[in-house]
Design goal:
Deoxyhypusine Synthase, 11 strands, 13 helices
Length: 318
C-alpha cells in the first residue's frame, strides 16, 4: 500500500494536573446552563465516587474512541486508580493492538471513501486506519497468542482472560490492555465476536475444534464482582452493548450508587443508547437515591476536562 502524502499521526493525549482546568470546570457549574453546568455536575459526582474507598468503579465505552487520542485518557484513568472494572466492545481490543504496533492518521469526515478504499485505508469518522495496520496485523498477532494459549493446554477462554493475555503480549506502556492487566483491572467484552479479534478467535477455532469462548465464565466473574461490592459507581461513555451490560449486572445488587453518562444519543426513539440515567432507576439498575448525571457531549471533547479535573483533585487530596 502506498502511503498518502502529508498525513499526520494520531497521538494519544493525557490528563494533566491543572488547577486551571478545575477553575474552568467549577466556573461552568456556576454558569446556569446548559451542558456546561452538566459537565460540572458529572465531574462532582465522579469526584465523590472516586473518594469513596469501598466503591467499585466501572467504566464502559465503545471501541471508536480507542482509535483517537482519547485512548491516553483511558490509560490515565486505569493508571491513577479511577477504574476497577472495564466493560467494552471487541474493537477496543482491535484498536489497542493496532495502535500499539502501528499508526493511525488524522482524516476528515468528508473524504472520498471510494478513493480511500482503493488506496488501502479504512475511515473511522475523521480517523484513517491503514488496512495493513488493522486486519493483517491483528491476524498475525492473534494467531500467535491463541496458538500459545492452545499449546499451554487452554481449550476455553473468557473475554477477560483473552484481554489480559493480549495486554501481557503487547507489553507496551502505550497499550490500555497492558495497563489494565498490570493494575489488575479486568476487561470484559460481552460482544467478543463482533470485531477483528473475535473473528480471529473464530478462525483459530475452525482448525482447533476443541477451542471455544466461555461467555458464562465472564458472567460469573461479573456476578461475583457486583454482588461482593459494598458500593458501585459507573462512568458510561457512549452507548451500545457495553453500556447495557454494565448497568444490567448492577441491577442484581439493587443498582448503582453513582452513575454518569456521556452521550450524543437522544431518548425520543426509546433506545437504550439515548436513555438518560433516570430511566435506569425505573429498572433498578441505578438506585433511587444514587448520585447521577447525564452529559450530552461527544466523548473526546469532554473527557480531557473530566480526567484532568479528577486527577488534580486526587493529587490535591494526597
Amino acid at each position: 500500500m502506498k502511503r498518502l502524502p502529508g498525513l499526520k499521526k494520531v497521538h494519544d493525549v493525557h490528563a494533566s494536573e491543572s488547577p486551571e482546568v478545575v477553575a474552568i470546570v467549577d466556573e461552568m457549574g456556576r454558569s446556569g446552563g446548559f451542558m456546561a453546568k452538566n459537565l460540572h455536575d458529572v465531574a462532582k459526582v465522579l469526584e465523590e465516587m472516586n473518594r469513596r474507598p469501598n466503591c467499585t468503579k466501572f467504566l464502559s465505552f465503545p471501541a471508536d474512541i480507542m482509535a483517537t487520542g482519547a485512548r491516553g485518557l483511558l490509560i490515565d484513568m486505569v493508571k491513577e486508580g479511577m477504574v476497577d472494572v472495564i466493560v467494552t466492545t471487541c474493537g477496543t481490543l482491535d484498536h489497542d493492538i493496532s495502535r500499539t504496533e502501528a499508526d493511525y492518521f488524522e482524516g476528515d469526515f468528508d473524504l472520498d471513501d471510494v478513493f480511500l478504499h482503493r488506496n488501502g485505508y479504512h475511515r473511522l469518522g475523521s480517523v484513517l486506519v491503514p488496512l495493513e495496520s488493522y486486519g493483517p496485523l491483528i491476524e498475525r498477532r492473534m494467531q500467535a497468542i491463541l496458538g500459545k494459549l492452545y499449546r499451554s493446554g487452554t481449550r476455553s477462554v473468557t473475554s477477560e482472560a483473552l484481554a489480559r493475555e493480549i495486554g501481557r503480549d503487547l507489553d507496551s506502556h502505550r497499550s490500555l490492555l497492558y495497563w489494565a492487566q498490570k493494575k489488575g483491572v479486568p476487561v470484559f467484552v460481552p460482544g467478543l465476536t463482533d470485531g477483528a479479534v473475535g473473528s480471529q478467535v473464530w478462525l483459530f477455532a475452525e482448525s482447533h475444534r476443541d477451542f471455544h469462548i466461555d461467555p458464562i465464565g465472564d458472567e460469573r466473574r461479573l456476578s461475583d464482582i457486583t454482588s461482593e461490592a459494598k458500593e458501585t459507581g459507573a462512568l458510561v461513555l457512549g452507548v451500545g452493548i457495553s453500556k447495557h451490560h454494565l448497568i444490567w449486572w448492577n441491577l442484581f445488587r439493587g443498582g448503582l450508587d453513582y452513575a454518569c453518562y456521556i452521550t450524543t444519543a437522544a431518548e425520543f426513539d426509546g433506545s437504550l443508547s439515548g436513555a438518560r440515567v433516570r430511566e435506569a432507576i425505573s429498572w433498578g439498575k441505578v438506585k433511587e437515591k444514587a448520585k447521577h448525571g447525564t452529559l450530552y457531549s461527544e466523548v473526546t471533547l469532554a473527557l480531557p476536562f473530566l480526567v484532568s479535573y479528577l486527577l488534580t483533585k486526587k493529587k490535591a487530596a494526597t
